[in-house]
Amino acid sequence: MAGSARVGNKTGRVRHPHASPANKKDDNVVHDSPRAATRRRGTLRDGVRRETSTIDHIGFPVSDYPRSKAFYEKALAPLGYTLIMEVGADHTDSGSPAAGFGKQGKPDFWIGGEGGLKATLHVAIAADDRGTVDAFYRAALAAGGRDNGAPGLRPQYHPNYYGAFVLDPDGHNIEAVCHAPA
Ligand SMILES: N[C@@H](CCC(=O)N[C@@H](CS)C(=O)NCC(=O)O)C(=O)O
Protein backbone atom coordinates (compact mmCIF):
# COMPACT_ATOMS: atom_id res chain seq x y z
CA MET A 1 0.00 0.00 0.00
CA ALA A 2 2.78 2.41 0.88
CA GLY A 3 4.32 1.67 -2.50
CA SER A 4 1.24 2.98 -4.23
CA ALA A 5 1.20 6.28 -2.36
CA ARG A 6 1.01 9.24 -4.71
CA VAL A 7 1.24 12.98 -4.39
CA GLY A 8 -2.33 14.07 -4.73
CA ASN A 9 -5.09 16.09 -3.22
CA LYS A 10 -8.32 14.92 -1.67
CA THR A 11 -9.97 14.78 -5.08
CA GLY A 12 -7.37 12.24 -6.12
CA ARG A 13 -5.88 14.62 -8.70
CA VAL A 14 -2.15 14.14 -8.92
CA ARG A 15 -0.10 17.29 -8.34
CA HIS A 16 3.21 18.03 -9.90
CA PRO A 17 5.89 16.95 -7.40
CA HIS A 18 7.43 20.42 -7.41
CA ALA A 19 4.16 22.27 -7.00
CA SER A 20 4.32 24.90 -4.28
CA PRO A 21 2.02 24.25 -1.37
CA ALA A 22 -0.19 27.19 -2.36
CA ASN A 23 -3.27 25.09 -1.78
CA LYS A 24 -3.34 25.07 2.01
CA LYS A 25 -5.54 21.99 2.07
CA ASP A 26 -2.62 20.05 0.67
CA ASP A 27 0.01 21.28 3.07
CA ASN A 28 0.23 17.98 4.90
CA VAL A 29 1.41 16.30 1.73
CA VAL A 30 5.05 15.99 0.77
CA HIS A 31 5.38 17.91 -2.49
CA ASP A 32 9.01 17.65 -3.37
CA SER A 33 10.95 15.16 -5.41
CA PRO A 34 12.87 12.15 -4.07
CA ARG A 35 16.08 14.08 -4.65
CA ALA A 36 14.83 17.05 -2.62
CA ALA A 37 13.60 14.68 0.06
CA THR A 38 16.99 13.04 0.42
CA ARG A 39 18.55 16.48 0.91
CA ARG A 40 16.68 16.70 4.18
CA ARG A 41 18.17 15.00 7.20
CA GLY A 42 15.19 12.73 7.69
CA THR A 43 14.43 11.22 4.34
CA LEU A 44 10.81 10.73 3.35
CA ARG A 45 9.68 8.95 0.25
CA ASP A 46 8.04 11.21 -2.25
CA GLY A 47 4.29 11.20 -1.93
CA VAL A 48 4.01 10.12 1.69
CA ARG A 49 0.70 11.38 3.02
CA ARG A 50 0.12 12.20 6.63
CA GLU A 51 -3.49 13.19 6.94
CA THR A 52 -4.84 9.67 7.21
CA SER A 53 -3.78 6.72 9.28
CA THR A 54 -4.76 3.09 9.37
CA ILE A 55 -3.48 1.95 12.74
CA ASP A 56 -6.61 1.13 14.70
CA HIS A 57 -5.23 1.05 18.22
CA ILE A 58 -2.14 0.30 20.23
CA GLY A 59 -1.66 -1.07 23.72
CA PHE A 60 1.30 -1.48 26.00
CA PRO A 61 1.94 -2.65 29.55
CA VAL A 62 2.80 -0.31 32.39
CA SER A 63 4.41 -1.01 35.73
CA ASP A 64 1.90 0.80 37.93
CA TYR A 65 -1.56 0.77 36.38
CA PRO A 66 -3.35 3.30 38.65
CA ARG A 67 -0.41 5.71 38.38
CA SER A 68 -0.27 5.55 34.60
CA LYS A 69 -4.04 5.73 34.25
CA ALA A 70 -4.07 8.92 36.32
CA PHE A 71 -1.16 10.32 34.31
CA TYR A 72 -2.79 9.73 30.94
CA GLU A 73 -6.16 11.06 32.05
CA LYS A 74 -4.49 14.40 32.70
CA ALA A 75 -1.75 14.42 30.08
CA LEU A 76 -3.95 13.55 27.11
CA ALA A 77 -6.89 15.78 28.02
CA PRO A 78 -5.67 18.72 25.90
CA LEU A 79 -5.65 16.41 22.89
CA GLY A 80 -9.31 15.62 23.46
CA TYR A 81 -8.43 12.18 24.78
CA THR A 82 -10.43 10.80 27.68
CA LEU A 83 -10.71 7.44 29.37
CA ILE A 84 -13.35 5.78 27.18
CA MET A 85 -13.23 2.17 28.24
CA GLU A 86 -11.83 0.10 31.03
CA VAL A 87 -11.64 -3.71 30.95
CA GLY A 88 -11.48 -5.36 34.33
CA ALA A 89 -8.84 -7.90 35.28
CA ASP A 90 -11.44 -10.67 35.19
CA HIS A 91 -12.11 -9.98 31.50
CA THR A 92 -8.58 -9.93 30.11
CA ASP A 93 -6.35 -12.85 29.12
CA SER A 94 -3.51 -11.41 31.16
CA GLY A 95 -5.55 -11.04 34.31
CA SER A 96 -4.61 -7.37 34.46
CA PRO A 97 -6.90 -4.38 33.97
CA ALA A 98 -6.70 -2.30 30.82
CA ALA A 99 -7.68 1.29 30.10
CA GLY A 100 -8.49 2.65 26.66
CA PHE A 101 -8.15 6.35 25.90
CA GLY A 102 -9.31 8.15 22.79
CA LYS A 103 -11.61 10.75 21.40
CA GLN A 104 -15.02 10.74 19.75
CA GLY A 105 -15.82 7.44 21.42
CA LYS A 106 -12.90 5.53 19.89
CA PRO A 107 -10.38 4.11 22.38
CA ASP A 108 -7.20 3.74 20.33
CA PHE A 109 -4.54 4.18 23.02
CA TRP A 110 -4.47 1.42 25.62
CA ILE A 111 -2.45 0.68 28.71
CA GLY A 112 -2.51 -2.56 30.63
CA GLY A 113 -1.37 -3.42 34.11
CA GLU A 114 0.79 -6.42 33.16
CA GLY A 115 4.00 -4.72 34.29
CA GLY A 116 6.69 -2.52 32.86
CA LEU A 117 8.65 -3.16 29.70
CA LYS A 118 12.41 -3.62 29.68
CA ALA A 119 12.76 -0.86 27.13
CA THR A 120 10.58 2.11 26.34
CA LEU A 121 8.35 2.79 23.39
CA HIS A 122 7.32 5.87 21.48
CA VAL A 123 3.77 6.92 20.69
CA ALA A 124 2.73 10.12 18.94
CA ILE A 125 -0.80 11.48 18.99
CA ALA A 126 -1.90 13.94 16.33
CA ALA A 127 -2.94 17.44 17.34
CA ASP A 128 -5.01 19.74 15.15
CA ASP A 129 -2.89 22.79 15.85
CA ARG A 130 0.31 23.89 17.54
CA GLY A 131 -1.47 25.36 20.55
CA THR A 132 -2.83 21.92 21.33
CA VAL A 133 0.71 20.52 21.25
CA ASP A 134 1.75 23.23 23.72
CA ALA A 135 -1.22 22.43 25.97
CA PHE A 136 -0.39 18.71 25.92
CA TYR A 137 3.18 19.45 26.97
CA ARG A 138 2.08 21.63 29.89
CA ALA A 139 -0.56 19.13 31.04
CA ALA A 140 1.78 16.15 30.79
CA LEU A 141 4.50 17.89 32.81
CA ALA A 142 1.94 19.00 35.39
CA ALA A 143 0.76 15.39 35.63
CA GLY A 144 4.27 14.25 36.56
CA GLY A 145 5.73 13.57 33.14
CA ARG A 146 9.37 14.34 32.42
CA ASP A 147 10.46 16.71 29.71
CA ASN A 148 11.82 15.01 26.60
CA GLY A 149 11.61 17.89 24.17
CA ALA A 150 9.82 21.22 24.43
CA PRO A 151 7.18 22.17 21.87
CA GLY A 152 8.70 23.35 18.63
CA LEU A 153 9.46 22.61 15.02
CA ARG A 154 11.49 19.53 14.19
CA PRO A 155 12.52 20.32 10.60
CA GLN A 156 14.62 17.18 10.49
CA TYR A 157 11.30 15.35 10.06
CA HIS A 158 9.61 17.88 7.76
CA PRO A 159 9.30 21.67 7.68
CA ASN A 160 5.95 21.87 9.49
CA TYR A 161 6.57 19.10 12.01
CA TYR A 162 5.70 20.70 15.35
CA GLY A 163 6.03 18.30 18.27
CA ALA A 164 6.47 18.05 22.01
CA PHE A 165 7.82 15.05 23.88
CA VAL A 166 7.21 13.89 27.45
CA LEU A 167 8.29 10.74 29.24
CA ASP A 168 5.46 8.97 31.06
CA PRO A 169 5.93 7.37 34.52
CA ASP A 170 7.63 4.33 32.92
CA GLY A 171 9.82 6.42 30.65
CA HIS A 172 7.74 5.85 27.52
CA ASN A 173 8.23 8.67 25.05
CA ILE A 174 4.82 10.24 24.44
CA GLU A 175 4.50 12.94 21.82
CA ALA A 176 1.86 15.29 20.51
CA VAL A 177 2.48 16.36 16.93
CA CYS A 178 0.89 18.81 14.55
CA HIS A 179 1.75 18.55 10.84
CA ALA A 180 -0.18 21.60 9.70
CA PRO A 181 1.52 24.92 8.95
CA ALA A 182 1.11 27.65 11.58
N1 LIG B 1 14.25 15.03 22.52
C1 LIG B 1 13.88 14.87 21.13
C2 LIG B 1 12.87 13.73 21.01
C3 LIG B 1 12.70 13.33 19.59
C4 LIG B 1 12.02 12.00 19.46
O1 LIG B 1 11.78 11.28 20.44
N2 LIG B 1 11.69 11.62 18.24
C5 LIG B 1 11.06 10.37 18.00
C6 LIG B 1 10.57 10.29 16.57
S1 LIG B 1 9.35 11.52 16.23
C7 LIG B 1 11.97 9.23 18.25
O2 LIG B 1 11.54 8.15 18.58
N3 LIG B 1 13.26 9.46 18.04
C8 LIG B 1 14.26 8.47 18.24
C9 LIG B 1 15.54 9.14 18.54
O3 LIG B 1 15.60 10.37 18.41
O4 LIG B 1 16.47 8.42 18.91
C10 LIG B 1 13.28 16.16 20.61
O5 LIG B 1 12.86 16.99 21.40
O6 LIG B 1 13.26 16.36 19.38
Properties at a glance:
182 residues, five-stranded mixed β-sheet, four-stranded mixed β-sheet, binds glutathione, 2,3-Dihydroxybiphenyl 1,2-Dioxygenase, domain 1, 9 strands, 2 domains, disordered N terminus, alpha+beta
Q: How would you describe this protein?
A:
This protein is of the alpha+beta class and 182 residues long. The chain folds into two domains: 1-52, no CATH class; 62-178, Roll (2,3-Dihydroxybiphenyl 1,2-Dioxygenase, domain 1), CATH 3.10.180.10. 16% of the residues lie in helices and 24% in strands. Strands 5, 6, 7, 8 and 9 form a five-stranded mixed beta sheet that branches. A four-stranded mixed beta sheet has the order 1-4-3-2. Strand 3 (98-103) and strand 4 (106-112) form a beta hairpin. The longest helix has 13 residues, at 130-142. It is globular and about 45 Å long. Residues 1-35 have low confidence and may be disordered. It binds glutathione. Glutathione binds at residues 122, 148-149, 154, 165, 173, 175.
